[in-house]
Amino acid sequence: MKRSLALLLIALWSGPVLAQTDYPNRPVRVIAPFPPGQGTELIARAVAAQLTVQMGQNFFVENRPGAAGIIGTEAVKNAAPDGYTLLVAGGGPFAINMAMYAKLPYDTLRDFQPIGMIAAVPNVLVVSNDFPATNVKELLAHAAKQGEKLNYASSGVGVPNHLIMEMLKSAAGLKMTHVPYKGAAASIAALISGEIGLMFETPGAIVPHIRSGRVRALAVSSVQRSVALPDLPTIAEAGGPKGFGAQGWSALAAPAATPTAVVQKLYSELKTALARPDMKKRLLDIGVDPLDFTFEQTAAYFRSEVENWAKAVKSAGIKPE
After folding, report:
1. Distances from the Cα of 172 to the Cα of 137, 163, 180, 230, 317, angstroms
2. What distance in Å separates the CA atoms of residue 87 and residue 147, rounded to the nearest whole number?
3. Residues 114 and 128 both lie in one domain
4. Does 84 fall in a domain?
5. Strands, sheet with 198-201, edge to edge from the N-terminal-most edge strand
6. Is residue 320 part of a domain?
7. What are 261-306's pLDDT values in tens digits?
8. Does residue 11 form part of some domain?
9. Deepest of 38, 192, 193, 236, by most Cβ within 10 A of its Cβ?
10. pTM for the predicted model, two decimal places
11. Containing structural domain, residue 57
12. What Cα–Cα distance (Å) separates residue 66 from each residue in 101, 155, 165, 184, 253?
């Protein structure tokens, strides 16, 4: 009897350990909380494809767009914390939404376990082909004359490309009018048609249109030049406010109670993936800059971004909904 009880206790104790060490033993869902073609989704597919090769199981991307990334992010929060549902997180759903929504159905710092940073995502300042400015200095001069008659687009209220433009407005003392669209595809279509004059957008979504000549790129939003887009100056370099800089980012995250062994394995595999030259090239081709953060730096970055974007939301005069 005692021997049987001992064997049962050993089995109960070792079960979770065994489940963790043979992870993954079935397909892994990677949720991208934005529509197909958006920058976060393209990054998710690049990472999922490489992890599939490395870990011998299918990592498949599921698009769960809507409500500024809230729907997909909440789905991961509510998923079983077993490593089989992951999130490609970004500054919008993870940091900005914390300041934008009074009743957000998740808490970034409480409900998720950071795994690792993937890439920095500097936004590109783009204008329509008939816009009467060929560089940032001319754009700011034109905007100063036009004031609120000049409209700029974004893919939604409170998303990174909205707030980055608001930060530029504040730094340069401008008064432009915000026109939010339902997603990147709609706002880019408006820019190409000339319905709207300018916007910031993620490289993954806008670079193909820059290369095809359908829109013109003036600068990147980051403090330093983008590795992926080295020919584009920063806002400050191109005659904008000194020291100006803001960018998005992508990271891999899991539900908060995901076992430590699973998180550590995913971090190690992600780090291996991002060190590969072909993976770096794939991310650079999307227009984002691969990041090499430690596990501890990733968690610290999540905390700092929540604070930084809260300040940006406040400076834009946006009240939590």
Report:
1. 11, 14, 21, 24, 16
2. 40
3. no
4. yes
5. 177-180, 151-154, 198-201, 124-128, 215-220
6. no
7. 999 999 999 999 999 999 999 999 888 899 999 989 999 999 998 9
8. no
9. 38
10. 0.80
11. 27-121+247-315
12. 14, 11, 22, 12, 19
